[in-house]
Task: structure prediction
Amino acid sequence: MIHDSLIRERLVTGDKTAADVTRDISRPILNQPSSAWKVGFTLSIVFLAIFGISLFYTIWTGIGVWNINKSVMWGWDITNFVFWVGIGHAGTLISAVLLLFRQKWRMSINRSAEAMTIFAVICAAMFPVFHMGRVWVGYWALPLPNAFGSLWVNYNSPLLWDVFAISTYFSVSLLFWYIGLIPDIATIRDKVKTKGAKYWYNFFAMGWTGSTRTWARYELVSLILAGLSTPLVLSVHTIVSTDFATSVIPGWHTTIFPPYFVAGAIFSGFGMVATLLVVARKVMNYENYITIGHLEAMTKIIMVTGTLVGIAYITEFFIAWYSGVPEEQYAFLNRAFGPYWWAYWSMMSCNLIAPQVFWFKWARTTPWFIFIMSIVVNVGMWFERFVIIVTSLHRDYLPSSWVMYAGSLTEIGLFLGTFGIFFTCFFLFAKFLPVINMAEVKSILRNRE
Amino acid sequence: MAILDKNLSLRNRNKILVGVWEDEDALVDAAHALVDKGIHIHDIYTPYPVHGLDRIIGVKRSKLARVAFLCGLTGLILMVTMIWYMYVIDWPINIGNKPVRFTPSWIPVMFEGTVLCTAYGMGFFFFWRNRMLFAVKNDLLDDRQTDDRLVVAIETVEGMNEAEVVELMKSKGAVETKEFQAVCK
Result:
């Protein structure tokens, strides 16, 4: 016999029924877009245009329009790449890792977090692809026969591992997201009135009826996909970290990178999820679904991962000193007290110090404050990548190669532009697909023990 | 074993008795009661997964996990073969006399390929088994079965006392009972 829990706090408040869930969550899809949506979408399109212009200028004129040079050959581009990939990771963490741990609070937020993963990976992929310079031969990164102009790809190179990792990650996340969406698309299919909408929702619903047989297999597939995505998400950021760690550059050549990068990725991803959801729950009236309890759980993860990242920063510093290698020691002292000290201390204060406010319950339960903190986290994590990349490169082995680096207008435009890609996709998603997983939320309306 | 699950189509069947519930617990009780009476429940349609229903109506445990394993194995073999061919057979490169066969640097690509093949292979068989394809249309027994109603479908067989079944469903909390006969094209 199953009982309703008397002590556990409800995951969905407001005494919602299944019909309420359908009505509330499909409201933005079935109705005309709100003015908030229109304003947000227009703004995103403006940023998308900035991306288009910057990209066109980059391709048309050549990679020289970026300020990268022979010493700092990775600048804003790879900083942005790692930044966006990192953001993507929270989506998989929420949907896969929390599913394996049977954390039911994930159910209200996994859909939007997974969508975020997919859009963030699209943004991330832009940077290494266009950093290739001659993007029209970008297919040389694929394992194609020598007759295509290149030799076989180099399996010893982490950059190639990245090609496989990012494309697998994107494809598997997309499949996971889509399979999760099917029951909800079917719900929308049975609600929409116009002919065009009926056709398209029916098209993507794949004939879903909610049969018990299908549900049983669906749950098994979700579980296996979660089991696959968990090592996958760890592997992706591990591989991204090996882009640096397998090199011999002081400041990069450290074995702590994989776990440190993964923790950082989860940290930044939860930052972005919090940014999006604090706004979405208010604008879309989802306060009963994405409750203060959800925000609190996310802030706890932000605090833990932020502290992990902070410990990694300190460990790196300690190991640099303890290794006795002068180059390593110099690299780290230069990070903290060299010309880019402001970036280093921005990173430290945003990622290690700032999240400590979440020890206080007030900070964990006040949405506007969480929103501000989530922005701080995102800024801090961008600076982390900037610090790792630029401070390690700008002091080359030969002092004659020492340079300073700052992003050019085109690089800044590309970065701001990716927010255009991200938010344009997100606004379209919020208009045409249910932002909250209706089927899963319906299954937790009763507070089972 | 045929991959496509024929149970999922409601076409070419006898008349179906439909019972509609609005409460999950009542439905589970009703399903137990029906099965205890020896009535074969063809399927139950729910807007969200109700755990345990598959066992009650006698759906066997899915073999998709094994399929996923085989797909993963295929992926792994494909990747090893690919790297082996490119690195060892077609164009071996001598890098400081280091070994070229099965170095740890192969592992990331092998792993990613395995995951990709597992996920997509399993997804492919999942869709196939469940009769799911873009734009497929299936019969719905109730307009709200993807919204908030839980629908039991019982296929009539010869000698079945239909009135008794309907009465049992009503007594177990069905808010509505009806009959359904798929239109065959």
